[in-house]
Amino acid sequence: MLNPKTLTTIKDLPLLAKTVVDGFMNGFNRSTLKGPGLEFSQYRSYQPGDDLRWLDWRMFARSDRYYIRESETETSISVRFLVDASASMNHDDDGIAKIAYAKMLVASLAWLANLQGDAVALNVFQDGKLFSLPSKPDPQHLQRLFYHLEQVKPGGQFTQPAHYKELFADNGRKELLVFITDMYQANGEIFSLLNTLAALRHEIIVFHLMGQNELDFNFKGYTTLEDMETGETIQVNAQTAKTVYKEKLKQHLDVIKAELLGKRIAYRMLSTSQPLDEALREFLVQRKKGLVQ
């Protein structure tokens, strides 16, 4: 159910998100995902006004008294999704564009975050503009996020740095930032954004999307390659260029990974052919790590 090709047949984004999360959580212990704490350290007596979801019914069965499980840490946080909507995100492999995969990924992670009681927010970087949807925890706000996500149509280049420090530090609260991008940048503008965000001490996960055809370079004969953001073209002999291409690609990915990990930014490269469960698992690992530090 988490296969991207299968998921593209679901046109309703909320339904797709629910399908992905339900599939991912099959066999998963839901109690570790929900509530005001991933772990709890003690019980206390029930007080009027307490959330009834955190009553421990086993304790009630043993003692005939109501107890609330208390969390060691308050885990409700703000999760902000940053989406690269530059023209290169239109890159298609086997009928799945990077932007389509990005939308499925953001929708699923936002559903999961909302399930955990987290506030969600959305920023879209596109052709000199920056769309912002503020952070709120309620289900109605989640529907707004889905609506704006559905409207995203990639074009132009990635937004140049503009007052990022003021934009992402205005509430003074640390957030979990989930950045979905293909890491295509003309002048280091994506690194500039991430440098600023890391300096603000936010927890950051970067999901680097690539088409499987980009990873394999499985073209034959002479091929014309076009830069989707500048329109420039180049002809290459795919057979002779493949070995050099793969070496250069490995060097490129190693540089990106080293640059981000050096700033304590979690990094995961995903092929658009990969099931979404790997991304959801990485999200939960990083979320929990940020909460217990």
TrEMBL record:
Q: Which Gene3D superfamilies match?
A: von Willebrand factor, type A domain
The DUF58 domain covers: 42-248
Query: Which InterPro entries does this one have?
Result: DUF58, vWFA_dom_sf
Q: Which Pfam families match?
A: DUF58
Q: What's the protein name?
A: DUF58 domain-containing protein
